[in-house]
Amino acid sequence: MSWSLQSMEMFPSLVNVTRHLTWEELACKDGTGYPFKFAEDGRVYRLAQVFENIRSLCLDKPIKIHSAYRTPEWNKKVGGVANSQHVQGIALDLEHTVMSNAMFHALILENWRALGVRGIGQYKTFVHIDIRDSPKLAVWSGKDT
Ligand SMILES: [Zn+2]
User: Fold this and answer.
1) pTM above 0.85?
2) How far is the CA of 116 from the centre of ligand 1 (A)?
3) CATH T-level fold of 5-141
4) Where are the alpha helices (DSSP H) in the chain?
5) C-alpha 15 – ligand 1 centre gap (Å)
6) 126 CA distance to ligand 1 centroid (A)?
7) What is the distance in A from the centroid of ligand 1 to the CA of 11?
8) Ligand 1 geometric centre to CA of 38 (Å)
9) Which residue of 9, 39, 88, 143 has the fewest C-beta atoms within 10 A of its own C-beta?
10) Domain assignments of the chain as residue spans, ordered by start
């Protein structure tokens, strides 16, 4: 398979973070918006770029976001771990709209370093990815919540 990393496509606006990712998609499911402080310190753009890299690698087709930012309260409610990467605003639970979840997971796992992924969790209907500060890859599988 041949593919290339997209150039930084940053046009932050009131709607979009990057070309294929909106602020609304990053918001907590309880209605809380993605925290401004995480935009200010730049992490949201690193996360969005990794999302664009994954999208570009995976057929350049839409990817559904099951979960992105979570408030600590919402994280507790959905059974997330206490120091969840979602609470830190650096994780996405993704479902590809065309390829199987197994194939999607395999592609990300195979290309994690180039993509900028540092954590990958395999679930039944989605793949968790995050950009934790680590030179190594954290890998696990779990049950959908
Ligand atoms: Zn997750």
Assistant:
1) yes
2) 16
3) Muramoyl-pentapeptide Carboxypeptidase; domain 2 (3.30.1380)
4) 23-26, 36-40, 43-57, 72-77, 101-110, 112-115
5) 23
6) 9
7) 25
8) 17
9) 143
10) 5-141
